[in-house]
Structure to design on (397 residues):
């Protein structure tokens, strides 16, 4: 039975995640934003995360526990956390109200186990389309198809262990309901919030000088440089715009397992002066990088939300996005951005040019879209979901 809430109904939540700092990816960005918002509201978040021995040794956050394990060979930044999770005594000592899983692998299994032995409600946020990353394991089409079926069988089982499921967009909710062929008693659509004011304040002059783009149109892409992020289409679109009358340069911010491959691809195509790979860009520099740009490009068809897209919109950028997944919840083609066929470099190039030539009014429409999803408002929505699930669980006992 969940304990009685204290005073102002402050909650204590245990998060289980397959990725945490020093990793930098969409899940970590989401967790940092929600944690900031929840703690500002007076709630307490305890994090149990997979990580390396080095990450554990350097962790100074008393509310973060790193569970170590071997690296996942295709993507060494991620760890397979084989060590046991927190004990029932630990969870009771922390006074946890709700367990919230942010993945369905080893840490996700620990969340299920802890929920059962501690008698606590459990929620899951479906952050990642894991089935779209099967190419890290095999490039054989038949084996990929078999793996996708196996992953969805696993997800159907996992969802059945949860008292509530969260997705960041309506698009992903529809996908889950279609694939699982079920309706969930408690299902919440809660996008990750962005710091709208911070992204509106960036000064991009320094970045333009660093990129030697003072007289050019600059297109920015932000995210992991991974195979599933469809960087190939970005590179091919850059090649297609090379013959255009516009002087366009592309800046790709992020790191990942495909970075060296695409560096070499750009060099092979003779695009090194036109396409720049920036590597990891610190959080405090992202607003300025975005404000330096004339447009933002996201070609990934892998996104459950596309947090970087909302950050770019908060910076007032016309955006061009693949017409797939979570971004379609936010971008209305021709109104606050442009959508394109993610499998077509020609379509991508055309949408990018449209974004570069967009009317200034589109910048304000983009900002208004992002302003609907602040860190504070999304944290309040998540806190209300926690409370609702905790109450329903207590009544069912």
């Amino acid at each position: 039975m969940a304990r009685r809430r204290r005073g102002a109904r402050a909650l204590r939540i245990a998060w289980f995640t397959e990725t945490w700092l020093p990793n930098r990816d969409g899940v970590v960005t989401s967790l940092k934003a929600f944690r900031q918002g929840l703690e500002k509201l007076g709630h307490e978040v305890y994090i149990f995360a997979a990580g390396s021995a080095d990450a554990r040794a350097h962790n100074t956050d008393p509310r973060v526990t790193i569970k170590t394990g071997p690296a996942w060979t295709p993507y060494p930044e991620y760890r397979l956390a084989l060590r046991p999770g927190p004990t029932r005594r630990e969870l009771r000592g922390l006074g946890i109200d709700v367990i919230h899983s942010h993945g369905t692998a080893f840490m996700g299994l620990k969340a299920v186990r802890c929920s059962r032995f501690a008698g606590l409600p459990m929620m899951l946020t479906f952050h990642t389309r894991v089935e779209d990353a099967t190419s890290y394991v095999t490039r054989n089409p038949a084996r990929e198809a078999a793996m996708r079926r196996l992953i969805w069988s696993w997800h159907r089982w996992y969802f059945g262990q949860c008292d509530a499921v969260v997705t960041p967009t309506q698009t992903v909710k529809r996908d889950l309901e279609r694939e699982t062929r079920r309706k969930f008693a408690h299902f919440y659509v809660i996008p990750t919030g962005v710091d709208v004011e911070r992204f509106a304040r960036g000064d991009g002059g320094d970045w333009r000088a660093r990129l030697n783009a003072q007289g050019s149109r600059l297109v920015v892409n932000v995210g992991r440089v991974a195979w599933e992020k469809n960087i190939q289409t970005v590179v091919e679109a850059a090649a297609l715009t090379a013959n255009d009358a516009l002087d366009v340069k592309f800046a790709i911010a992020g790191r990942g397992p495909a970075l060296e491959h695409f560096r070499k691809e750009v060099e092979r195509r003779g695009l090194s002066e036109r396409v720049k790979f920036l590597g990891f860009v610190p959080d405090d520099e992202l607003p300025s990088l975005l404000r330096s740009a004339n447009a933002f490009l996201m070609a990934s068809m892998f996104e459950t939300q596309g947090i970087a897209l909302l950050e770019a919109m908060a910076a007032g950028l016309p955006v061009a996005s693949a017409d797939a997944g979570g971004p379609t919840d936010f971008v209305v083609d021709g109104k606050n951005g442009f959508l394109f066929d993610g499998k077509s470099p020609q379509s991508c190039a055309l949408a990018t040019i449209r974004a570069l030539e967009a009317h200034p009014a589109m910048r304000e429409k983009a900002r208004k879209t992002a302003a609907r999803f602040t860190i504070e408002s999304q944290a309040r929505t998540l806190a209300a979901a926690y409370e609702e699930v905790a109450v329903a669980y207590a009544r069912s006992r």
